[in-house]
Amino acid sequence: NVFAADDDTPLRKPIPRRQGKVDESYLHLHDTMERMVRAHDEACAEIGITNALVTLQEEGEVMSEDQWAMVTHLVLTQMSYKKAHREFGAKADEAVSKEFRQLHMRDTMEPMKKEDLTPEQRRAALETVCTVRQKVRNDPDSLKGRQCVNGSKQRGTIPAEETASPTVNMNSVILTAAVEAHEERDVAVCDLPGAYLSVDMDEMGEEHVHMILRGRMAELMAMTAPAVYRDYISVDGRGNKVLYVRLKKALYGLLKSALLFYRKLWGDLSSLGFEINPYDPCVANKMVDGSQMTVCWHVDDLKLSHADASKVTEVIEWLKGEYGDLRVSRGKTHEYLGMTLDYSSPGKVKVGMTDFTMAMIEDFPDDLGQFVETPASDSLFTVRPDGKRVLLGEERASIFHRFVAKLLFLACRARRDIRVPVAFLSTRVKAPDQDDWGKLRRVLKYLKRNPSLPLTLEIEDMSAITWWVDASHAVHGDCKGHTGGVMSMGKGAFMDQCNKQKFNTRSTTESELVAVDEVMPKMIWAMHFLQGQGFETKTELHQDNMSTVRLEVNGKRSSGQRTRHLNIKYFFVTDQIEQGWLRVSYCPTDKMIADINTKPLQGALFKQMRAAVQNCPVDLPPENSLCPAVAVCNAIASHLTKLQECVGRSLVGRSGEAR
Predict the structure, then answer these.
(1) Are strands 234-235 and 210-214 parallel, antiparallel or unpaired?
(2) What is the DSSP string of 2-29?
(3) What is the enclosing helix (H) or strand (E) of 275?
(4) What separation in angstroms does the CA of 171 have from each of 32, 98, 426, 494?
(5) How far is CA 28 from the centre of its chain?
(6) pTM above the 0.90 mark?
(7) pLDDT by residue (tens digit) across 248-295?
(8) Is the pLDDT reported for residue 219 higher than 50?
(9) Which of 335, 520, 350 is nearest to 452 (CA)?
(10) Gap between the Cα atoms of 191 and 302, Å rounded
(11) Rounded to 5 degrees, what angle do the CA atoms 225, 230, 232 make?
(12) 169 within 8 A of 280, measured Cβ to Cβ
C-alpha cells in the first residue's frame, strides 16, 4: 500500500517516525519493494508476459525483504479495500457490497446507535478488516470481497483455553480409515462453507461483541440495506462516518470463533445421537441399523462413514439443511487434510501424498540428480566439531528449515520409511551446516525414487494390537540414544514413534527400557481410543533384548546392581502388564520392525523393514525405471561409478551422474 506499480509516483502514506525522524528500515523496505516490482515488470515485458502466477509456501516463516517484495507483487493478490478502490474503483465497491449483502442475508450483525453504547463499549469495539482478492490477475471482474474483524483487542480479556478449539488427532484419522477399509464402509468427505457464520452468538450465550465500520465501509454497508442501517450512521470527532454494529454471528477474526463453531457442530451431532470418543473430542460415533457410523472433523472438514451409503447420504442432507450447500466427495478416493485416502482395494486403505512429494522434489533449489536406495547413510548421526562446521547462510538455512518441516508433515502421514533422517534433521534446524544440507538432499533423492509410494494399511484382527519398540544406544553426538516404535494391526505401520531420547543412559538395556517408557503413552492411547470406538483389544509388545523383557515383566525383582539407579517410573510398564491388557514377548533382532526408526538401515535389511511399515513389495522397483531412457542412464552411471577407480579421468560427477 506504499507505492503504485503502474507509474513512477509513490503513493506514500504517513510514514513511521521516531523522535521526528523517518524510520530508515521503513524507507529501505519501500525502496526494495519498488525495485523488485520494476525489475519484475521489465522482465515480463521483455518476454511478452502479461499475467504471471507464482506460488510460495513459506509456512509462516520470516522472509527476507526481497522475498516480501516479491510476494507482495506477485503472490498476494489479496489487497486492502483502499488499494483495491484506487486501482479498480467501482469494481472494488461492487465486490465489497456483494460480501456485505451475503453477511446481511445471513443476519450476521445488528446496527447500534452510537449514543446507546457506553464509552467503554465504544473503545472496545473491534475494527473491521475488509480485503479484496483478485482471483485472476489483471481481471477486475474477478474481484471478491472478504469481511473480517480484527480481534486483537480481545487478547487478554478471554482465557487462553477459550481461544482455541480441538482438532482431530492424525492417528485417529489413520485408525478410523483403516477400520473403514476393514469393514468396507461407504466413506464421504465434506467441507462446510462459511462455517463460522453458522454460529449464533446469542444462542451460545456469548457476551455482546461490537464492531465499528468507518468511512466508505459504513457507507457501503448502509447502501446494502438502507432501511436497516442508514439511520444508524453517525460521525466521529474527525468528521468521518462510522457505523457501530453488534455481531450476532461468529465472524472470522474473533478469538472465540473456532471454539464456538466446534461447540455448535458437536451440539448438532449430539442432537442426532452421536457420542464423542473420550480419547479424541473430534471423533463421534452412532449405531445406525446395527452398524457404527463414525464422524471425525478438523474444524469444518468432515469425514463420515457407515456400511450403508444411504445412511451417509441422510447425514449429509441433514448437514446441508443446517449449514447450506456443502462441498462433498463420494466414492472410493478422497482428499482429506492433505492426504489422498484410497479405498479402491477391498480391506485396504492407501494413504498417499504424491502431489505434495513431487512438489517438494521440484521446488528444491539444487539439482537432485540420480535417486538413491536409502534415505540416509550410515553417517546420519555424525556431526562435525564446532570448529570444523560450515554453517549455512541465512537464505539456505531458511530453505532447510522449511523443507524439514515439509518432510515432517509427510513422514507423520504417508511415508513412515523416512522417519529416522527427518527426526535427526528436526534437531538441526536452529544452526544447520553443509553436512545437514547434504543429508536433507539425500532424503529428497530417496523420495525421488518412489514419490507416489503410499502407506497401505490392512487390519487382520480387530482385537489384536502389536507394538515393536527398540532403541539405539548412544548414537547421537552427545551420546544420547534414539527411540523407535511401530504399531500395527495386520499390515503396515498404523502408528509409530521416532525421537532422540531426552537424557543419557548407561547401557543398551537401559536405553530400551527408556524407549518403552517413551512409547507407552501412545500404546495406552491407542488401546483406549479403539475401546472408545467399540473394539475390545489386547496389546502385545515385542522387544529384542531379554534383559529388558525381564525388567519389564518382573520390575524391581529383576533389578541388580547395574540397574538399581533406574527411576521407578521406568517400571510403569510392569504395572500395565499386571492390569492384563499388555503382554511382552521376545522378538529376534532381524524381525524387529522398529529397527527402521532407530538407525539408518542399509541394503536388504532396509528393504525388508520398509516393506513391513509401508506394506509394499520388498523389491520395490523405482517408479522412473518405467522410462527406458532413465533406466539406461542410471545403469550407465552406476557402471561408471564402479569403474572410475580404474581409469585415469573420472567420467562420473560427484552425484554419481554420467558426465
Answers:
(1) unpaired
(2) -S-TTSS---PPSPPEETTEE-HHHHHH
(3) strand 275-277
(4) 45, 41, 20, 8
(5) 34
(6) no
(7) 999 888 989 889 999 999 999 999 999 999 999 999 999 999 999 999
(8) yes
(9) 350
(10) 6
(11) 125
(12) yes
